Amino acid sequence: ETGVTQSPTHLIKTRGQQVTLRCSSQSGHNTVSWYQQALGQGPQFIFQYYREEENGRGNFPPRFSGLQFPNYSSELNVNALELDDSALYLCASSLLGQVNEKLFFGSGTQLSVL
Amino acid sequence: TQLLEQSPQFLSIQEGENLTVYCNSSSVFSSLQWYRQEPGEGPVLLVTVVTGGEVKKLKRLTFQFGDARKDSSLHITAAQPGDTGLYLCAGFGGTSYGKLTFGQGTILTVHP
Q1: Set of chain B residues whose Cβ sits within 8 Å of the Cβ of A33
Q2: Which residues of B touch A4 (CB under 8 A)?
Q3: Strand-strand pairing, B5-7 and A104-105
Q4: What SS3 class is residue A29?
Q5: Distance (Å) from the alpha carbon of A24 to chain B's nearest alpha carbon
Q6: B33 has which bridge partners?
Q7: What's the DSSP call for residue B71?
Q8: Which terminus of chain B, N or C, has fewer Cβ atoms within 10 Å?
Q9: Is A85 helix (H, G, I), strand (E, B) or coil?
Q10: Is the pLDDT of residue B93 over 80?
Q11: How far does chain B reach from its first CA to its final CA, in angstroms?
């Protein structure tokens, strides 16, 4: 067990709706990264948050946004959902700046967009 | 854009056989990691390799980082059904902390 918890575990939404996914990072970690994993693919980097600010972003549109809170927990928000947003969304916590940075992943939220 | 290509994409073998999974890129990575992921779970880190030519062993698993830090391999000796899962290689590039570039994964099935 990594100590990273995500909620909810499963979610079904319809096209055009908005969704918020939540992540509690491992104790002592100050950084949260979000990844999207489509079926049969490796995870793709969405963005990272450090000190409550976005600290790097992958190739995802602005309707993907996030927050990090003072307790280092985080949210991923997706607006105007599209069918292709159906995927496993993974949160990973880490300690920024450590040599050979280790990411600890949660079990993910499985999002289905109908 | 940094890309990692894994091969094979699928691997189905009998218990006791050996196997090798490859991870290749045209880009240099500062370090490379291997993860194992089971259905309904997030990836779990197995190893990090940093130095070109580095070899690390984890019980029956042997990991190697290419001399030029562009490729890596995972070798499993005497595979067991418990080794079944999705194996992912992932690279850290430059100063993009936390931004891992993942390969598409290798689905390994070990039959008893």
Answers
A1: 98-100
A2: 42
A3: unpaired
A4: coil
A5: 14
A6: B48, B90
A7: E
A8: N
A9: helix
A10: no
A11: 41
Residue B80: pLDDT over 60: yes
Kindly report the number of other CB atoms within 10 A of residue B51's CB atom: 10
Instruction: Give pLDDT, residue B98.
Output: 58
Q: Is the pLDDT of residue B26 over 90?
A: no
- pLDDT tens for each residue of A16-58: 999 999 999 988 888 999 999 999 899 999 999 988 999 889 9
Query: Strand A87-94 to strand A109-113: parallel, antiparallel, or no bridges (unpaired)?
Result: antiparallel
- Percent residues over pLDDT 90 in chain A: 70
User: What would the two tokens of residue A85 be?
Assistant: 């947003």
How many angstroms separate the CA atoms of B97 and B30, rounded?
Answer: 11
Closest CB to A100 among B42, B50, B88:
B50
Find the radius of gyration of the CA atoms of chain B. Answer: 13
In single-letter form, the type of residue at position B3 comes to: L
CB A46 within 8 A of CB A36: yes
- Cβ neighbors of A52 (< 8 A, separation 6 or more) are A67, A68, A69, A70
* Cα A99 from Cα A90, distance rounded (Å): 23
Other C-beta atoms closer than 10 Å to the C-beta of A48 total 26
